[in-house]
Sequence to fold (91 residues):
Amino acid sequence: MMAWNGMPLRVGSSKGPGVIVLVQANNIAANLFLANNLIDLIASMNVTLAFLHNRTISEHSANCVSALTRNMDTSDCALSDRQRLQLPRGV
Fold:
């Protein structure tokens, strides 16, 4: 399990093993800074970073978080609510 912003997330998804990391920041520059600093920590894993902009996890992204924590496909998370960055294994 990995937690970000206090939300525990299960390892794995319908797309295969990996770690889901929720990053919440006020702008994309801050998100990219956080993502770049996470890469060293999780470089050996398949990772999905879910970027949540100007919203609390419990508020506007409840459906997305629910899908992620149930190891379901994240395609039901509206792209307007978050951007996903897929990092290949070993990046």
In short: The chain has one domain: 2-87. Strands lie at 2-4, 7-9, 19-25, 47-53, 82-87. The mean pLDDT is 45.
